[in-house]
Amino acid sequence: MHDAHHTIHYTLMICPLEMPLEKKEKGDCDVFGFCFDAEFRNTGLERAESLAKDLEWFKEQGHSIPEPSFPGLNYSAYIEDLSKKDPQAFISHFYNTYFGHSAGGWMIGQKVAQTVLNGKKLEFYKWDGDVSQLLQSVRDKLNRVAENWTREEKNHCLEETEKSFKFSREILRLILS
Ligand code: HEM
């Protein structure tokens, strides 16, 4: 079932994003020049829990939930690796994933609900509060953190966008297969 496929691979991709960046020394917020936990944890954009609920719902509808496979696992491992060594690249995936799913994804989610789910609103598309305000507040934090980056670090973050689209394309291809 494609919808279940869809959610499980998003779950894999999002979970590493919802873990804290690995720090060299416990409690040291300045290793990367910013404190990920303080700035980007509990933003209200987290989706792993709602995805788990959606998967449960798909299961109750009689769909089997497939085992994670290459595109999701591969992206997940990649992000986890970045979290240990490359904050600028990690932030690029953080931005693309949450903003992509919450802005464009929300619109796609509406269409999917109307056309194949008989209007069922998935948990993935429910937020506590106004999603555009949540996005704006995270956008402000991202801009604040990036103000302290060098031009090279900013370029590195921007260039990582290509990878973000590449991994997403692989997941999309799996959903369509
Ligand atoms: C089927 C493919 C896609 C469609 C149809 C789509 C559509 C959209 C639409 C309509 C918006 C604007 C929403 C708004 O302004 O309210 C949007 C925003 C966005 N999309 Fe996509 N998108 C797709 C794939 C992707 C992918 C693969 C990524 C990243 C990996 C991505 C990243 C983003 C980001 C970051 C934004 C928000 C920009 C911002 O406001 O800061 N999108 N998308």
Automatic annotation (TrEMBL):
Output the Gene Ontology terms for molecular function.
heme oxygenase (decyclizing) activity; metal ion binding
Name recorded for this polypeptide: heme oxygenase (biliverdin-producing)
Q: Which family does it belong to?
A: Belongs to the heme oxygenase family.
Q: Which GO terms describe its cellular component?
A: chloroplast
Q: What species does this protein belong to? A: Centaurea solstitialis (yellow star-thistle)
> Which InterPro entries has this protein been placed in?
Haem_Oase, Haem_Oase-like, Haem_Oase-like_multi-hlx, Haem_Oase_decyc_pln
Q: What is its EC number?
A: 1.14.14.18
Localization, per the record, is:
Plastid, Chloroplast
Keyword list (alphabetical) reads: Chloroplast, Heme, Iron, Metal-binding, Oxidoreductase, Photosynthesis, Plastid, Transit peptide
Q: Name one GO biological process term.
A: heme oxidation
Pfam families recorded for this chain?
Heme_oxygenase
Q: Determine if Chloroplast is one of this entry's keywords.
A: yes
